[in-house]
Amino acid sequence: MRDKVWDFHFYVANDWPEDAICLHFPGMTLSPHGLLHESVGVFCPNDRLELLKLLRDEDILIDWSKPLYINFVHYDIAEELTRLYEDTGTIERVVGDVFVCENTGNVDDALEPDDEANPDVQVLPLKAEHAEAIHELYPANDMECHEVFLRLIRSLPAAGVFCKGSLAAWMVQSYYGAMFSMQTKPQYRRKGYGTKLARYLTKRVAERGYRPFVVIRPENEASQNLYKKLGFGKLYQTVRMTFMPSTWHDAENESSTVLRDNLENAVRQLTIEQKVLNAFQNEETVVQEELVVEDAEEVEEVVEEFDDASEQPDVADEESEGRIEMTEQQSLEEIAEEPAEEAEEVAENEESSGNVAETPNDVGGDQDDGGTDAGDAE
User: Where does the N-acetyltransferase domain lie (predicted)?
Assistant: First the structure.
């Protein structure tokens, strides 16, 4: 009560304290229907267990026709509640052994030789930023909300083992006083981190004025041996139970079924609509592609026409250049032919006058013929 974690709800009998029975509704423990009075803890002296009949006869907070979730109670109380509930419905039970540390001085005596040898491993207080990771690995995270761990870390002792700065294992003190939720990440197990946490948190809890205790499953011998080394001893057994009436018909299940069916129908309808939209989109895509092809063909035609137009001047230039070259060639031939024509005219005039002149070529030709004859004579 010194370190408030949540708004707890306590109810006592009308004749309190003569009728020493108390109901505790934690409020933060999650229940299937989210109702405050679905989850309850019961406290009364073991020699006054007959007071539990008030829960069935006079209590107006608990509706026995609906499921009821009993938080950890003393084993004897659980047995009496079981008898009161017989022939009403089914009961599920989880049993735990409560180990209490009577002498915290034994904690330091349990030091191992190499406990503090590794400087990369440190035990440090947890911070709010670690709450989410702790909740994710908590075995009963369907019953405890994330905010519970956030408040516990802020208000009560909570510690973690950090290996090279990374959170490897952790443990916190619960709102009902127990040291619980010792978890170690798989890659860091079997390294003695659990012992470090238990020793550290036991001392912190005792320093705050609380009596350190833990709840351990009867079959978990390893944890029992660990806490025995630290000076813990078994005090009693506690039980957590779920009462489920045989006549219980969960109307919310019907609503959930209807909601699920409606959701499935909506999904089917959306699927059909999506297929129709996809079909329209495909048609639009085809039309757009056809338009793109037509536009591309038109562009190609324009480009070809432009290319043809740009090539025609080149042909004309080549033809004009050819004509210029031919004209120049013709001019040269005409110039070369004029002296030849003049020479022919002179020769014709001389022949007409009867005087024939020998040319050097004619003389040379005769000498060649004479040489040939002399050879034949020899």
Answer: 121-249
